[in-house]
Amino acid sequence: MNEKTDKFSLKRDLGFFPALSTVMGLVIGGGVFFKISSVTAATGSASLTIFVWLLAGFITINAGLTVAELASAIPVAGGIYKYIEYIYGKVPAFLLAWAQSVIYYPAGISALSIIFATQVMNLCNISSTWQIPIAISLAIFLYLVNLLGAKVGATIQTVALIAKLIPIALIIIVGIFTPSSNSISLFPITSGSHANFWSSLGGGLLATMFAFDGWMNVGSLAGEMKRPEKDLAKSIIVGLFAITLIYVLISFVFIKELPFHLIPGNQNAASESAIRIFGEVGGKIVTIGILISVFGSVNGYTMTGARVPYVLGTDDEIVFSKFFGKLTKNTRVPANAGLVQTVIAIAMIFMGSFDYLTDMLVFVMWIFSVMMFIGVFILRKKEPELTRPYKINFYPIPPIIALAGGAYIIISTLFRQPGLAAMGIGITLLGLPVYYIHYFNKKRSL
């Protein structure tokens, strides 16, 4: 393993602050503005809403620290795909890549495109019949934009990062000090009357996790840090703690500004809160900033998602490998992989709502997350001599917390949303015949 690690080692030039900004940039996306509607719908109370944001942050910090050990021990390009492959073999790794290609990235594109369309309709006061056309147009437009090259996509990401931080800061800073007639009770922590406490907790946790989406990638920083043994844990803890604080504060402001009963299911809660805080004109300006942020999030999924089937194609691990592994002549972009991803995303725009799509992608990815947490225990036992530039402090407490949190999310979803869970698992398992058809065709051609 060490020889392989040395051969594929990444350049180690990241210090603490670049790593910290990368952690925050990876995680903060469109969910910070729009998941409040589904979180409150699941919890039914202000107290449980704030609590699930805190709990989700606590679980995510421990999950990030756990995956960071894997990343430091297996510091090769490919991230969680390579961790799963190293621990469990090629078939589970392929299923992960398959799930990312047909569920995770397309669902992210479609869900956020729906949100973008909803906000455009709200901002411009146009009919809801425009939602699907606007969402589809955005998905197609960003696919075409990314054909211009990775540099163009990266520029959009930079602009969107600034755009999303400005409305977040304004809403929190001004919103906290703006007087409100709404009273908020944070203790005792109770669920609404619509469901029991544990069911509400599970639904709230699942909803919050889309806002923390991106945490699985923070571990990949280990291979690029100067001192991962000192700075990795610090950047993850500080970064995810800061993100949790931001999510708690902005959720508090939303609940403070809007009567609680107006938030559940209301995808315009962020813009309506902004209008109450800043007035009609100021609120619309903040809403434009939110739109740019969502635009950047869709671009992020579009840009990174196409690389997964492309890698499968170049490694000859999927049917039609040559098709998926093809790059554009001048800009060297995986156009065919991106096209298929966009087609799937458009199909998902027709089939589901924002919350349904995000819940499905979170559920499926947490199954693989739990596999990674278990993988830390497996490697500790099977390969104790493996070089680990970063080792989890207070082991085995963080991976146990991460494992317990992940298991709760999965089990709760199976009971609360069995149809969604069955669809997610079913689509993932469809990857098995795809894998073996290609595998036997390859063997036959040898």
Task: Explain the overall architecture.
This protein has a single domain (2-445), classed as Up-down Bundle (Amino acid/polyamine transporter I). The protein is built from 19 helices and no strands. It has helices spanning 2-7, 16-27, 31-34, 36-43, 46-73, 80-88, 90-124, 131-146, 150-177, 197-209, 228-257, 269-305, 307-314, 321-324, 335-351, 354-382, 397-416, 418-429, 431-445. α6 (80-88) crosses α16. It starts with a helix and ends with a helix. 51% of the residues are buried.
Oligomer: single chain
Largest sheet: none
**pLDDT < 50 stretches:** 1-10
CATH class: Mainly Alpha
Q: Could you tell me the strand content as a percent range?
A: under 5%
| Helix content estimate | over 70%
- The CATH topology turns out to be Amino acid/polyamine transporter I
Q: What is the fourth-level CATH superfamily?
A: Amino acid/polyamine transporter I
In total, the number of domains comes to 1
Number of strands: 0
CATH architecture: Up-down Bundle
Number of helices: 19
Structural class given helices, strands, pairing?
mainly alpha
Protein name: Amino acid permease family protein
Transmembrane segments: 14-36, 48-81, 93-118, 130-149, 156-177, 197-215, 236-255, 275-298, 333-354, 360-380, 392-415, 421-440
InterPro entries: AA/rel_permease1, AminoAcid_Transporter
Keywords: Membrane, Transmembrane, Transmembrane helix
